[in-house]
Amino acid sequence: MKEKDFEQLLGCLDIIRNMYEHIRFVDPVNSKVINVNEKNEIDTEAEEIKCYTFWGNTTVCKNCISMRAYIENKSFVKIEYNPDKIVMTTAVPVELKEGRVVVELMKDATDSLIFENKLSGDITELLIMIDNINNLAVRDALTGIYNRRYINEKLPIELISSIVNKKLLSVIMIDIDHYKRVNDTYGHLVGDMVLKTLTGIIQSCIRRDTDWLARYGGEEFLVCLPGAPLRMTVEIAESMRKAIESRAIVSGEHEIKVTASFGVSCRIYTKDNNYEDVIEEADKNLLLAKRNGRNRVEW
Questions:
Q1: In the predicted model, is pLDDT for residue 256 greater than 70?
Q2: Measuring CA to CA, which of 6, 26, 94, 109 is 20 to 30 A from 124?
Q3: Quick one: 94 and 194 in the same domain?
Q4: pTM above 0.90, yes or no
Q5: What is the mean pLDDT of the chain?
Q6: Which domain holds residue 52?
Q7: CA 298 to CA 262: how far, in whole Å?
Q8: GGDEF domain location, by residue (predicted)?
Q9: Are 73 and 92 in contact (CB under 8 A)?
Q10: Does some domain include residue 143?
Q11: Pair 61, 55: CB distance under 8 Å
Q12: Alpha-carbon distances, residue 132 vs 82, 135, 136, 188, 284 (angstroms)
């Protein structure tokens, strides 16, 4: 990104500078702040600052609006807090000659938010409310695990990390076999119970803090295992398959048994790939598992 581009962009921001306490440029793909010095030039000598440290975090934010703004090329607003204040952040994607960056416009909202008849004087209640709102944005309402939006925001970060560090990125796609039969036979409430039960089984097979599970949609799930080798990933998928197959789900007088099919992908990606390629590779193997009889793992 060229300094002239930033000078021009900063000039355009002068008109609104007094409206915000803090304005920064963010590269959400690499989770870093783009440093600009007092002369409105890119400071290439400055120490790299991770964008999430502003919020007191040690890892990427789960509900990152800058990543969402970057991917969808739309502006988003979020209320968040750090140890010192409550901040309203507007993330605006900007196209420069050498790529897209996100401008974060931050306004201190600690004393200006009004929730009439809803809150006591204790700010802790407001912080809990903010946490709940941000958590709901990336959580599936039925199962409580991450949702499709989280996949769309988190998987690109995992992909970039894989490319930069030349490490494997492993993904497991899971589909419950003949799930429609469960709904048609026992009803949707029982179908929901099956989904929640299987979510718990899948989660119990995930051991590392770096691995995560999300509901891709309907009866499909995605497990991401950054850096996991193929053998480990297949073994984890097989342990999930066996655990699901052996579990009897009791609903009233009914004992329901289901199975699931698994597609595994594991490779080192290049800069020519995007996160959809990661999903597509695992999904192809999932379809292969279905064609080969279901209740199996393919890779």
A1: yes
A2: 26
A3: no
A4: no
A5: 84
A6: 3-138
A7: 6
A8: 167-299
A9: no
A10: no
A11: yes
A12: 15, 5, 6, 27, 36
